[in-house]
Amino acid sequence: MAPEKTFYLETFGCQMNAHDSEKVIGTLRQQGYRQVETEQEAGLILYNTCSIRDKAEQKVFHRLNDYKRLYKEGKRFAVLGCVAQQEGERIFDRAPYVSLVSGSASYRKLPEMLTRLEAGEGRITGLDDRQTEETFETEFTARQNPYRAYITIIEGCDKFCSYCVVPYTRGKERSRTSSSVLAEARRIADLGYTEIQLLGQNVNSYRDPEGKLSFAELLAAVGQVPGIRRVRFTTSHPRDFTLDIVDAIDAVPTLCDHVHLPVQSGSARILEAMAREYTPEWYLERIAWLKAARRRISLSTDIIVGFPGETPGDFIQTMDLLAEVQYDCVFAFKYSARPNTPSLTMIDSVPEEEKAQRLQVLLERQREIQRSNYSRHIGEIIEVMVEGSNPNRGQVAGRSSQNKPVNFEWQQPIAPAPGSYLRVKITAAFPNSLVGEVV
Ligand code: SAH
Ligand code: SF4
Ligand code: F3S
């Protein structure tokens, strides 16, 4: 009898990577592999990697450091995802015990690559030259999240922001057909999921290859699939953010009242250097549409501080924009110079301490904004979807449609299942979460 094939997979990076991993796990199972919880138990160890910032990438290389011994014990290693695509065959030089390197645009070839690996081959690659039109669609997705089902509707990126690796690591932009997306949404609903999150690096740049539905129409159609109660979508690019998206949210109650719209900077000059192709005014016009919606739409964003050439004056403009928009959540990062990107050739002029200082100032100000935003919910009754619970402490954690974490006490012996909905009266608020009691 052949020895059992086992694998351990660890995922770094964004939700697209998390969902790719669900599809990779499904593919591996289909190939006869069993997933195990630790590297010790595994015959094949895979990392699905991220290279968005220097730290993310270093984490991966740190892991690959010393595999000689494990390799001699018979274990094999595969590097997937964005570091794999970015570094390509250089990974074999840097980490000689790695046998397989594949970027996300080549996952369709995984079964074949695995067969070669099992036959004892090394230096197996699946690398993309920004040519592929293929999307990774599989019926074998092994969904790991008990309450939220991801659907990738568009892969890759054609925006080429000057600081960003994604156009190089995930290939060119390519959308799935709306029929295939809707068929998957219906399958997901049949499985019992009530929340769907549509994914894409620029989800709203979606273009139906069949020419049937616009992004806003697809959004509305997914929201109308019987059984689906919540639809989220991430990440929207301001360039492609159209008014009909707000109309869809107005018209279809299952579309969550939350939009993540990364701005990156409040300075027109810096936005231009970033090649974002919009001005603060353009961005704020979209925010005004969202603020004029029938339901109050919660807003969140991404910011980069310390981009090459960012002056204290530019930074103040970013702070002013935060004050104006009043986001409910901000992901802020220090600029990190990345391989292959145009901004690599710009002088990384803001010293590290200054970047850290700006980040801290920004996060402190944002904390105050959120303290005030979140406290406005006190007294409201909110529908919460349960995400998990800590039975020992009688605590349940869930999330509102606006994507705000809501925690509440639970006295009964059996905790509510992940994915169930409860109505919770908000009794207290923190800058990042709400507290309440079930009504
Ligand atoms: N496609 C999305 C974002 C993808 S990456 C968009 O365009 O909005 C997620 C976030 O990481 C970005 O919004 C940006 O804020 C941050 N990021 C990307 N490259 C970075 C870099 N080189 N240094 C610091 N932050 C970066
Ligand atoms: Fe990166 Fe810009 Fe594409 Fe977003 S839109 S993934 S920031 S290149
Ligand atoms: Fe990272 Fe690649 Fe996502 S670089 S953030 S895993 S697209």
Summarize the structure.
This protein has 439 residues and is of the alpha/beta class. It has 14 helices and 19 strands. β16 and β17 form a beta hairpin.
Would you mind describing this structure in some detail?
The chain has 439 residues and is α/β, with parallel strands linked by helices. The chain folds into 4 domains: 122 residues, Rossmann fold, CATH 3.40.50.12160; 110 residues, Transcription Regulator spoIIAA (2-Layer Sandwich); 119 residues, Transcription Regulator spoIIAA; 58 residues, Nucleic acid-binding proteins (OB fold (Dihydrolipoamide Acetyltransferase, E2P)), CATH 2.40.50.140. Helix content is 33%, strand content 23%. The protein is built from 14 helices and 19 strands. The protein is globular. It starts with a strand and ends with a strand. The structure holds S-adenosyl-L-homocysteine (SAH), iron/sulfur cluster (SF4) and FE3-S4 cluster.
Please give a handful of descriptors for the protein shown:
alpha/beta, Rossmann fold, Transcription Regulator spoIIAA, five-stranded mixed barrel, binds S-adenosyl-L-homocysteine, binds iron/sulfur cluster
